[in-house]
Specification:
By secondary structure, the chain is an alpha/beta fold. It contains 20 helices and 16 strands. The protein has a seven-stranded parallel β-sheet, with helices on both faces. The chain has a six-stranded parallel β-sheet with strand order 8-13-12-9-11-10. Strands 14-16-15 form a three-stranded antiparallel β-sheet. Strand 12, helix 13 and strand 13 form a beta-alpha-beta unit. The longest helix is centred in the C-terminal third of the chain and has 26 residues. The protein starts with a helix and ends with a helix. The N terminus is likely disordered.
């Protein structure tokens, strides 16, 4: 590390002590901060609760100019901006749920260059009024931070097509800035296996990125899987589990909105204070449920994968998957909500027995997900014959309702390139890769059925082979069974 890097890291450490009150950074926070202060591209894989937001907030606050934080969920943005404002730091957010008045105030602050950090969703970033402001030559932009970068890789119900266009953002912004301007990109995620890392780097067009990887192992988190032989049996296991943990904070994950509402209603009938949470709820209702859970009024929420990302509640003692997720990356994200205070926490997943004779629902759910993936690919290949070879995204989406996902799929198959964030060009021949997501669903199934140490399986799956060799965590259900 040279003199300049050491000096800037010392300044960052002083800011960390003064504003956040911590004595020093945890590895590799210091190295990441140095890298971002040097305006180098980076890919950072850190477990949930690992303190990743500090890594980009401090460099943003120490530099003049603006850092854009692209984040998938409103709750995630609100949570972080609120914490920054409580510390009197110049941060703001833009999203579709803001009132016109709040939006105007933020856009004015942006124009007057009063902000250090601006949080926004990828859709808001590429909306005409915001893009116009960001493209003004005098507005200095230092960095693009992509938080929860795994959203760029995951397909299925959580996929956001606009993520595939983010690689075209930096070149387009640089065209409007003075010559010699540098904008760095840093992608942060808790879960990315080697193939996901490659996709993130390629799509974002990262330039010689520094890669920081911390393995996902959490010694206080105890994963286990239990067979529920019938639908009634599944409910009984759930009931017993929560009765044995009165007043402990927890989360129950299900796969669909309807499951979330039905299960929450059933638990309410059983006398439990709970609520359903999914992406179909209005903004006010979502905030109300989040606040009730964070404040301890309701000990647990019955939710889809829309809940929990970036919502920081340290004392979650358990996460129960009433239905297993389709993807291992989703699973690690979701169990990672538990035990952020370092105290023991449980992560229980309920599954049907493998044949599905007595309860075929798990198999049907998995099949539906795979059919959905296949159908999206089919639609994309049919649409490619009708689409103009070159076009503007908004106009095409108006004409063809399925075009947003289809264009993203064509891009992931190598059949399309983005000329800028708003215009595409269809290329003659794509590589038509087999869907990595279908491989990922098989991996999830292998995890649920493994007899090995569950943490060893997860370490291997996420590319930490060296650490995984001869690994036995001693506290997952499989390790406990062997010890017992």
């Amino acid at each position: 590390m040279n003199y300049r890097e050491t000096t800037s890291l010392n300044t960052a450490r002083t800011a960390f002590q003064k504003i956040w009150g911590y004595a020093d950074f945890r590895p590799p926070q210091g190295e990441i901060i140095s890298s971002l202060l040097e305006q180098k591209d980076a890919l950072i894989i850190m477990p949930t609760g690992g303190g990743k937001s500090i890594c980009f907030q401090i460099p943003a606050l120490l530099q003049t100019g603006l850092t854009l934080v692209i984040s998938p969920l409103v709750a995630l943005m609100e949570n972080q901006v609120q914490e920054l404002r409580q510390r009197h730091l110049s941060a703001a957010l833009l999203h579709s749920e803001l009132s016109p008045f709040q939006r105007r105030i933020t856009l004015q602050a942006l124009e007057k260059q009063q902000l250090r950090l601006l949080y926004l969703s990828p859709e808001t970033l590429l909306s005409a009024p915001v893009w116009e402001k960001l493209s003004q030559p005098q507005l200095q932009i230092n960095a693009l931070i992509l938080d929860e970068a795994h959203c760029l890789v995951q397909w299925g119900e959580t996929f956001r097509p606009v993520y595939r266009r983010l690689g075209a953002v930096r070149p387009a912004l640089l065209q409007s800035k003075p010559p010699g301007t540098k904008i760095s990109i840093a992608a942060f995620t808790a879960t990315a296996d080697p193939s996901a890392q490659k996709i993130i780097s390629t799509v974002l067009q990262l330039q010689q990125p520094q890669i920081f990887r911390l393995n996902p192992y959490r010694p206080n988190l105890h994963p286990s899987v239990r067979i529920a032989w019938t639908p009634r049996g599944r409910k009984q296991i759930l009931l017993k589990f929560i009765q044995n943990r009165p007043q402990q904070a927890g989360l129950i994950y299900v796969r669909t909105r309807r499951d979330s509402e039905n299960l929450a209603a059933w638990l309410a009938e059983m006398g439990f204070a709970t609520a359903s949470y999914h992406a179909g709820l209005g903004a006010g209702e979502r905030r109300r449920v989040e606040a009730s859970w964070l404040g301890g009024e309701i000990p647990f929420v019955v939710c889809t994968c829309a809940f929990g990302m970036g919502i920081n509640k340290p004392d979650v003692r358990w996460v129960l998957h009433f239905h297993a997720p389709h993807l291992l990356s989703e699973y690690v994200q979701e169990i990672g909500r538990a035990g952020r205070d370092g105290k023991p926490a449980e992560a229980l997943t309920l599954v049907s027995e493998p044949t599905g004779w007595l309860d075929p629902e798990d198999k049907q759910r998995q099949q539906f997900f795979q059919d959905q993936m296949y159908s999206q690919q089919q639609i994309a290949q049919q649409l490619v014959k009708k689409l103009p070879k070159q076009g503007e995204v908004t106009a095409i989406i108006k004409q063809f309702p399925d075009a947003a996902i289809a264009l993203s799929l064509l891009h992931s198959n190598g059949q399309l390139k983005w000329l800028d964030p708003f215009h595409y060009l269809i290329q003659e021949r794509g590589k038509n890769q087999p869907s990595t997501q279908l491989n990922a669903t098989q991996q999830m199934s292998q995890y649920l059925n493994t007899k090995k140490c569950r943490w060893q399986f997860l370490l291997t799956a996420f590319g930490f082979d060296k650490e995984a060799a001869n690994w036995h965590c001693g506290h997952c259900d499989n390790c406990r069974r062997i010890k017992g």
